């Protein structure tokens, strides 16, 4: 029977619909601690990729940039600091290409706002997605 493969799909749709019934009221009553979110987002060296991108923009091959970032992150962990809290002198131990402008790239806000392509995390990209979602809902509900 060609319909046997549809059963998992129907089960998935039922599960999704049941989840949405619970999800909407939960979101409505949810409290958001922005300070805690920001603090948590800054942990784990999430801006290390931005440091690598910065070095690549300075002309360093990605493989070498990755190696430099690895050493820099290991040092930051040893010193119990975030990347953006390292002094310029500390960072320059790992590459002479790191200059004062590095701080324009490795902060949490700079990292988030640098992702400005379709579906990105920048404020502009997010607002575009919100407008598209609202338009879709207005047209289809």
Automatic annotation (TrEMBL):
Keywords: Amino-acid biosynthesis, Arginine biosynthesis, Lyase. It is an enzyme of class 4 (lyase). GO terms for biological process: L-arginine biosynthetic process via ornithine. The keyword Lyase applies. Pfam families: ASL_C2. GO terms for molecular function: argininosuccinate lyase activity. One of its GO terms (cellular component) is cytosol. Gene3D superfamilies: Fumarase/aspartase (C-terminal domain), Fumarase/aspartase (Central domain). Residues 45-113 form the Argininosuccinate lyase C-terminal domain. Its EC number is 4.3.2.1. The keyword Amino-acid biosynthesis applies. PANTHER family: ARGININOSUCCINATE LYASE. This is argininosuccinate lyase. It comes from Candidatus Mucispirillum faecigallinarum. The lineage of its organism: Bacteria, Pseudomonadati, Deferribacterota, Deferribacteres, Deferribacterales.
């Amino acid at each position: 029977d060609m319909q046997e493969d549809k059963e998992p799909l129907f089960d998935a749709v039922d599960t999704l619909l049941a989840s949405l019934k619970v999800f909407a009221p939960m979101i409505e009553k949810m409290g958001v601690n922005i300070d805690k979110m920001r603090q948590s987002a800054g942990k784990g060296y999430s801006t290390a990729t931005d440091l690598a991108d910065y070095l690549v923009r300075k002309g360093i091959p990605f493989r070498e940039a990755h190696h430099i970032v690895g050493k820099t992150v290991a040092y930051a962990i040893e010193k119990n600091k975030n990347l953006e809290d390292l002094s310029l002198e500390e960072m320059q131990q790992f590459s002479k290409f790191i200059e004062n402008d590095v701080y324009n790239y490795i902060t949490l806000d700079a990292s988030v706002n640098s992702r400005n392509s379709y579906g990105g995390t920048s404020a502009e990209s997010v607002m575009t997605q919100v407008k598209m979602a609202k338009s879709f809902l207005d047209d289809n509900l």
